[in-house]
Amino acid sequence: MMWLSSPALPVGGFSYSEGLEAAVDGGLITDDTQALEWLRGQLQLTLARSELPAACAAHAAWATADIAALHAVQTWVLTTRETAELRQQSQQMGRSMLEWLRNLRPGHPALPLAAQLDPAPAWPLAFALGALALGLDTEQMAHALAFSWLENQVQAALRAVPLGQSGGQRLLAALTPDIPAAVAQARNLQHRMDDWQSFSPMLAILSSQHETQYSRLFRS
Question: Does 21 map to a domain?
Answer without folding.
Answer: no
